[in-house]
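Consider the following assembly input.
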Amino acid sequence: MDMVTAAKVFSDIGWGLFHYIIFYPPVYQFIIIPGLVAALVVVVFMIWFERKAAARVQMRYGPLEISPRTGGAPQLIADLIRYTVQELIIPSAADFFAFIVAPNAMLILSLLPMVAVPMTSISEYWPIPMGYSLLIAVALSTLAPIFTVVMAWASNNKFSVLGGVRESFIIVAYELIAVISLLSVVPLLHTFNLVDIVNYQMSGIWLGLLNPIALLDLFIAILMSTSGFPFEIPDSETELVAGPFTEYSGLIYGINMGGGYIRRWAFSVLMTLVFLGGWAPYRPGPGILLGYFVPSLIVVVKATIVMAIMSFLRAVYGRYRLDQALSLAWEVLIPLAFAAFGISVAEAFFGVHP
Amino acid sequence: MPAKPEIKKVPRATFLGRAIAGNIGALTLGVKYFFDPNRITLLYPHEYIKLKQGYRGYIVLIFDKCISCESCARICPAKAMKMVSVNVKDKKLNKVMKKKYPVINYNRCIFCGLCVDVCPTEALYHVPYHDLVYLNMNDMILNLEQFQEQPEFVTSKEGVPVTYVFDEKRGLVKVRADESVKQEGQTGQASGGENK
């Protein structure tokens, strides 16, 4: 029997910590890639890109003065520090517990779908069994917006309540479109398994090409339901001060502001896997590097490009009124989503799928 | 009876046509500007608009031309210009005499330029810049010596002079001042050739 030394015990604990907690796929996917760390890096880059792209189109410079050579990139770090050290004011009329808990719950719940998506086709590195992963991911992605309404109600402010009502209107309309569009690939491939869906796209035929209407519908639904900048109907600055986030300040406001982007990131990863081929041109090889990190990086890059396109739209489109957005959803996009579902059924019937 | 406004008829009259054409048009324009930006923001301390001669900036006195007629002080609508008596040695008569000269108070001056216009001997002139900083209000009341020297143009030391020219394809464009002079010279030559 080996000698039990303190060094060996610590090294064993360290190995166990790395193997069973940090590199345990559900935890790893939630915390690092494509979860919290990757999302934060992408969000910081994306806010900078959004400001620069909008500025280019609108004949301005955007953030520049802090470091002209890099195009003002440290501006975002400065903003982050500013939000971190700003005073946190909690109004006395607010519901303290819900006021504090709801933003954090929203942040965590918007990252939850990341636990249900595969980053590789090797079953050793799947976070959960992949049988119904698409259904689980879609179901988890619809949890977060409830907490925006909770935030609005806990703030005890009329602007917040108006923003919360708008949020609920928008979510009811556009989450439905997103869910139907994502699930419209199911009748085509007869599976909820995301790995099977990506493996089918290895042939070069992405599902976005087979069913472009579903892709377009999902794209618009993500834009609207995550209330990103061109369509920030719940927190429109010109009408409601900041919508559900009116009473928030400091770090929690930063979390709220990033929360929409993180939900958008989660949807972008799902959209990449389902419609844009996931890690498609690349076949995962043996080993953790070729089998896990490289395909996950490919997915991250694709999702970042999707998010960049969404951010670019800020410069082009104006904001819809609430009634316009809702009529667009119920009169145009939901029929289109059902049409996309029908296209999938027809393609399955006429034997497009293998 | 009010005139009937004419509604411009668009060929893409259907809803679907309008939606598709409008979206594609907006997106193409956005992508065009994204890859070929036309930035017109003036980065002020690093760039400044080069103003043409004749701009009504700060006013400078040429001491030797002044004939003490007081026209500038009389016409000044803001009463910024006042005359002061100074002992001057007259060269012809070879004796010291009292003479009046204008001084200016930039707290009151509205840069209307009437004093420069009215001066019969052109003893006053404008400099083509206006971006100066005084540390306190007393410094803005100039005495006779300060009124005779051109104020220091600090912005031109580090800044790049730019002008805005109208380009037929791109609209208003910001260019460096020396380049715009070249362009204007070329177009002037070309138009001159056409006139001949």
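Chain A touches chain B through twelve residues (CB under 8 Å). Ask yourself how this observation constrains the way the partners meet.
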